[in-house]
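For the sake of transparency, this paper describes our internal protein records without simplification. The remainder of this section carries one protein's record, kept here as part of the documentation:
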Amino acid sequence: MSAITPEVLVERRGLACHITINRAAEHNTMTDAVMVALRQALLAAEAMEGVRAIVLTGAGEQTFCAGGKLKPGADGSPFALEPGRFDNPIAELFRAMDRCHLPIIARVNGSAFGGGVGLICACDFAIGVDTARFGTTEARVGVFPMMILPLLMRVIPRRRLQEMCFLAERFPAEKALELDILGQLVPAAELDAAVDALVSQLAANSPVALRMGRRAFAAMSGLAFNDALNLAQMVLPVMSQSEDTREGMRAFAEKRSPVWPNR
């Protein structure tokens, strides 16, 4: 295991790179420094030869991530306006997750609130423990889950999302599964086995197809229907020229498992 900083750990485990927010005593809340380190950890994972997925989790067994560490400034607001700096650190992190070449799995080892829910929704897959609790409770302290809203809107139906954000209530893991925040719910003792099984399933498929497909998902989510179709009909022939496609077609014809060149 290596450390981007003491608060963000990176560990290669077989076909996956595990990235851990290492702030269990602080409920794995995110500071600006943590968000910068998470972006660096994503880049480090992408550079690892043979890694097929990223697993994002929190330290300990209680909390996945309790969101941003809010600390009021001199003016009483937790959000500083810095002249010359436009991008919020969490926006930069979410952009990095959106551009990542590898599928990202949220290993939800405990509860998630505010920005922690946004982190889960920024991932491609989410497996959580059945004891976790969730919520976007920002309205209770006079703010709104603004920075995570674009991610939540990709995952959660509009009316249910409004209920989450406007009522600002905490809810159990079963409801998170119903809302698609989680894709799978397991007892804590089965969490790692479920994550490992998902990594193996992903690794069986073409890395080129998954990489280009992930980018297509991100691009199409912001396009009108006809524009999305135009993008698809341009990308598909490019993808079909890859060595992965040729290997996949040969393996299918020869009734064997493909050996992906990743090119």
About this structure: The radius of gyration is 19 Å. The chain has two domains: 2-203, 207-253.
